[in-house]
Design brief:
single chain; alpha+beta; Lipocalin; ten-stranded antiparallel barrel; globular
């Protein structure tokens, strides 16, 4: 509904009519609101406090539920046991004195060390190298074997000359040098042999046995001429007499063992 112009003009008069009572009524309203606000604020504090108390009670109940109930202590017993101290050593491992005694026994020389020491001296060698489909290559050399550390080991100095292909592929004279260390390990109860020479940078190790019936040492091991290319090898040393013995070298090539080296030793006079 649209207001008429007359009614619009009458609006101020209505405002005037309201003005005498507006002051008292609005004053009463504000006076009434102030205590109500205080009550609301008090109620808010009380509700907040109640919420806090409920939260504390809830946390306490959860904690008590997770904590195991205390177990009653066991009643005292009248049976007592004597205090026993732990032993210094167990029966599974020997004590220090026993270990020292065993080590001293293992450090003693025996007939196996004497077998190697009997090979000490200067030797002339005749070397034959063999390759499938080729004529054997024959050369001469010399070896000096020396017993060291009161007969515990025998160290060998090997020299020789052989034909080897050069950088151009042609065969040339090559001065060969090698070193060996042989011994008998009382712990492993095996003969041991190490070898190094000027044709590589590695040290080859082998382990072996001795057959007194045939007077033969037999060693086995591996050689690795190229990375990852390991070849099983076997060495056989046969004692002919105190002035002669032979050395045979076998390589496993493609599952087949081949004799590729033979050396005859003759003691120098």
């Amino acid at each position: 509904m649209r207001l008429s112009a007359r009614r619009i003009r009458e609006l101020p008069r209505l405002t005037d009519l309201l003005s005498p009572i507006s002051g008292s009524r609005f004053a009463f309203s504000f006076d009434a609101v102030e205590p109500a606000g205080r009550i609301i604020r008090m109620n808010t504090r009380i509700i907040s406090a109640l919420i806090a108390l409920v939260a504390i009670a809830l946390i306490a109940s959860i904690t008590s539920a997770q904590t195991p109930a205390p177990q009653p202590s066991a009643p005292p017993t009248t049976v007592t046991s004597p205090v026993v101290s732990a032993p210094a050593t167990t029966t599974a491992s020997p004590n220090e004195a026993e270990m020292m005694k065993q080590m001293m026994e293992l450090a003693k020389l025996n007939e196996n060390h004497k077998l190697l020491a009997d090979l000490a001296g200067s030797w002339s060698t005749s070397v034959k190298m063999m390759e499938p489909g080729k004529e054997p290559s024959v050369s001469k050399g010399s070896v000096t074997l020396k017993s060291i550390m009161n007969g515990r080991y025998v160290i060998g100095d090997h020299t020789g000359s052989m034909k080897m292909p050069g950088a151009d592929g042609k065969m040339k004279d090559f001065a060969f040098k090698g070193m060996s260390i042989d011994g008998y390990d009382n712990v492993k109860q095996k003969f041991t042999s190490s070898w190094m020479d000027n044709m590589g940078t590695g040290i080859m190790t082998m382990e072996g046995t001795y057959d007194p019936a045939t007077k033969t040492f037999t060693y086995t091991g591996e050689m690795e001429m190229m990375p990852g290319m390991k070849t099983p090898v076997r060495a056989v040393v046969k004692i002919t007499d105190k002035n002669h013995h032979t050395f045979e070298w076998y390589e496993n090539r493609g599952g087949q063992e081949m004799n590729t080296l033979e050396i005859n030793y003759t003691r120098k006079k």
